[in-house]
Amino acid sequence: MKNFSLSLYAFHLRHTLTELPGDVVVDANLLWENLVKVGENALPFIGLKDLRTKLICYENSKYEPKREQGRKTEWLTHGGSCLDLGSLPTTDGFKINANLQPFLLNDTYAVDITLVAESANISIEIPQLQHFQPSCLLPFNIQASLGQTLWIYGEVDSSEDCDALAEKLAVALVAGTNFNPVQINQSKLFGSLLFEYQATDHNEPNNPSKQCQILIAINNNKSPTVQLSGKAYDWLRDLLCSYHKIVYIYHQARQRYREARAIYSYLEKTITEFNNLIDKNKSQIDKLPELLAEIPQKSLDYTRCLQDLQIHLTAINTDIKNYEICLDKIKTIGGGNIPEFWQDFLKKDCRKFQEQVQTDINYLLPGKELFGQIVDTIRGIVETQQAESDRSLERTIQILGIGLGGGAIISGIITQYIDQSNNPLAAISPKNPPHPIYASLLFSFIATLLFIVFGWLITKWKYYPRNKK
User: Fold this and answer.
1) pTM: predicted TM-score of the whole model, two decimal places
2) Which of 31, 126, 199, 389 could form a disulfide with 181 if both were Cys (CB 3.0 to 4.6 A apart)?
3) d(CA 351, CA 363)
């Protein structure tokens, strides 16, 4: 393959709606830091090792995202241009040149690092692909949160078996790793054949940040692919960015839906437990306050899941519109021709994503109301139970108050009589008549009981007037 190039397009989330203006996510600079590590280890280009000094978001090698504020350009370089990273020699006698283009696309960091042979006339064979160290550009090294694309371009003779060549290139890109490239689409872009492969990690096959999209463009008919790609560069970059964001956001939405379903299952179990407490075991009704303490937090978590799904749906709709705009621009530049699988992604996959997230939201919405209803129901029962308990305690205090008060009055009267008697207190025996104090104690006890009964009758009439005849 002549005029060979290997490009990495990586996209990393800088900030979300939850961050305050000017703030970024915790690992916002991870993309730049990992590229520096690649420069320090696998691809020791001088410009890559010194990348921090070239980016406006760094000051004295320290990440300072506030320095990006107020910029009118997407470029993150001081001069607003492509960075020449330098060159590296190979054991086959040719050098590899590299350049890097860093961007800030709204809430996303984007980078394009391209490796090319020093001369377009140098033919690159499959074994020589390892000079470009493609494994160091795979997700486990780059860790771009939104995803990445490896793009190979090369020119061959018309007699070349392009399908077989694309397969060999895809396998060579991930040689020695856990990735397994699978061809999923084939079409044409600006006159060149375009093969799409998806390389997934066996450990996390469904995580888009762990996957690598591989695009292989093979020019076998001397089409002006390079010139047209240069003209459409911004739209191609933004198209890939929108693509990865759509896939990433849909993945996030499905995760939040599963979390919401788990909470909904908790709600269903809680309702069953609540019914059992009310219908079968009245003595366990004191467990209701425990439920009342748990449910509001679960309700808040459920509401947040639902809110995140609505935000994800809005984000997907926005990125789909951006994707469509980019596709139309590329189509215009390409004379009306675009890869069919790019169009299919818009018409089929994007529509499926929108409908699925909307269906998830519709399915979960009734649960939000159910949470409120169960909380109100349990709170009403608990408040009624507490009122009954307070009323019972108040009645008991009043009965005892009447009884003890009446008994004290009678005891006082009798005590005055005893004080007038000069008889000494003697032990009870047949030979001695009982002392008046014993009689006073008995009368006081009987009086207290009578007043307690009297108090019970009065409070019953007061608290339960419906029982009156």
Assistant:
1) 0.80
2) 199
3) 18
